[in-house]
Amino acid sequence: xxxxxxxxxxxxxxxxxxxxxxxxxxxxxxxxxxxxxxxxxxxxxxxxxxxxxxxxxxxxxxxxxxxxxxxxxxxxxxxxxxxxxxxxxxxxxxxxxxxxxxxxxxxxxxxxxxxxxxxxxxxxxxxxxxxxxxxxxxxxxxxxxxxxxxxxxxxxxxxxxxxxxxxxxxxxxxxxxxxxxxxxxxxxxxxxxxxxxxxxxxxxxxxxxxxxxxxxxxxxxxxxxxxxxxxxxxxxxxxxxxxxxxxxxxxxxxxxxxxxxxxxxxxxxxxxxxxx
Length: 276
Ligand code: SAH
Known about the structure:
The protein is about 25% helix and about 20% strand. It has about 280 residues and is of the alpha/beta class. The protein folds into 2 domains: about 10-120, Tetrapyrrole methylase, N-terminal domain (Cobalt-precorrin-4 Transmethylase, domain 1), CATH 3.40.1010.10; about 120-245, Tetrapyrrole methylase, C-terminal domain (Methyltransferase, Cobalt-precorrin-4 Transmethylase, Domain 2), CATH 3.30.950. The strands form 3 sheets. It has a 5-stranded parallel β-sheet, with helices on both faces. A 5-stranded mixed β-sheet has the order 6-7-10-8-9, sandwiched between helices. The longest helix has 12 residues, at about 70-80. It is globular, with a radius of gyration of 22 Å. The termini are far apart. The structure holds S-adenosyl-L-homocysteine. S-adenosyl-L-homocysteine binds near residues 96, 124, 172, 202 and 230.
């Protein structure tokens, strides 16, 4: 059995800062910043939240020029002198955030660790574009992935293999490799007019851009718009559903569907309804 004990007085909280809009941090995350003795934040994206709510006298540092070893040493040192140490990361700390690499040295040093989830850029991008990542009878599955860059993809996780499910793909860290993304979609049988949306700086006040295209056009459109960083690529058969005239309604809200809180009011019917 793994027994958790800590020898250091402070706890290091890994807090998801959300996708960019400082208002999209959780209430819990903001409360931790407000009582933090030290904050280590990850680059420009989250500096705003850190500086807006940090108390006077709080030690605030940017990790952008630190190695992982320097970051864990910094966190261990701060946990030795204050109760609440915050490691502020973009989106959710459990997605492409080097969480475990930082937690392991803290565990070894006997420092208590907690994680506060955050709004991932995948969710913020879908929200910005008013898109649903799942739709009844279209897809009920979302895959969070990336294409291979310096970090190799494990076997069976090539984008082509994942795209062959024809479910929703939220593709992180890949905007500079958009050509590879569209080639993988094509190889997996997506048609050239299948919709793709790219959201740049989702939720950033005044900086968000939404580029809508298709497998055939999205790369050119992003090039024209000079989008080369901080972007989410969403490929999904659900995209554009706001304009569809035929939509299978969610069974949860259908009058024929009985669930825990409501009895069906009409007999089961064909659930494919025409919207007005
Ligand atoms: N933990 C983060 C992801 C960090 S990896 C999260 O949950 O969102 C960094 C990648 O996330 C970027 O390359 C980009 O693909 C995506 N990303 C982060 N912030 C974004 C934003 N505001 N808008 C669009 N994509 C974003």
